[in-house]
Amino acid sequence: MSDAQTPVSARILDEAIAWQLRLGDSADSESHLTDLQRWLAMSPEHAKAWAQLGGIDRQLGTINSPSARRALQLNVSAKRQSAGRALLGLALLCTIGIGLALQARPLPIWLADESTGAGEQRSFTLDDNSRIQLNSRSALDVRFDEKQRRLFLHQGEVLVETAPESDPRPFIVETSQGDLRALGTRFIVRREGDATRLIVLRSAVAALPNDLQEGRTVRAGEQVLMRRDQLGASSSAPIAADAWSRGMLIVDDMPLGELLAKLGEYRRGYLGLDPRLESLRISGSFPLQDTDRALAALPPSLPVRIERHTDWWVEVVPDDSATPTGD
Prior knowledge:
The chain is of the alpha+beta class. It has 3 domains: 3-104; 120-236, Sandwich (Jelly Rolls), CATH 2.60.120.1440; 247-318, 3-Layer(bab) Sandwich (Phage tail protein beta-alpha-beta fold), CATH 3.55.50. The chain contains 7 helices and 20 strands. The strands form 4 sheets. Strands 2, 3, 6, 9, 10, 13, 14 and 15 form an 8-stranded antiparallel β-sheet that branches. Strands 1-4-5-7-8-11-12 form a 7-stranded mixed β-sheet. Strands 17-20-19 form a 3-stranded mixed β-sheet. It is flat and about 75 Å long.
């Protein structure tokens, strides 16, 4: 069957029939022909439906026979009833599809200057030669002008390495919680709910929450959690905090639930943990680009098994042959 003969959807066919009826009933056929041409140009499916109805063969002709119009009207009514039932199912599928699409790439990500979806990472160079790497499910706006170099992190995580060249404009990463001003440095900024985590890998970063008058300089090897009205105490940066930029997640005595939350950022669908396993902790390295392989590494080390309901619904549950114990 050729592409031209492939059936189109009931909705589009219904629209094409409605156009034929409109042309047949209207005295202002020239105006409607212009509108019809616009509708045909909107999608190849529209043109295909019109061709299958014979509209193009009639050179956009009208249907002058009243009996033919009545037959088409009855056809439209029958098709609408059938399409109505189909559209209920379609609406449900669309709702699910939109939900999954927004999980993979939520709205702030779609609207941002630079963004990544689930399991996606992206590296690029800014106009000042600073290097940026976005982690999975991240969204970033770039706002450079004559006075400053400013990034706004809507969501996710970014690794920043400022350019070695001297540039008098301040380099600032902004979030909803405050400003992080680079002092010739390499650092990570991560959104965590209503807070922002700063991890400094080289040199220093000045952190200033929105609702405070004074901030603090965070040095290499330190991390801090910033809220709008609070800057937490500095602590040691995690081991290999930037390993994700090389496709690995390295954890040291991390709660299992936290590990699954991090792995979940790199896959679509639901990744859950049985509440009975919340006390378990784990150390190790896990590949981020193959989260199924990362999950397969859990049972040899912990009393768990991986339960797959579908590719989109995976749970970590207790192993029937073992009793989990916490530290």
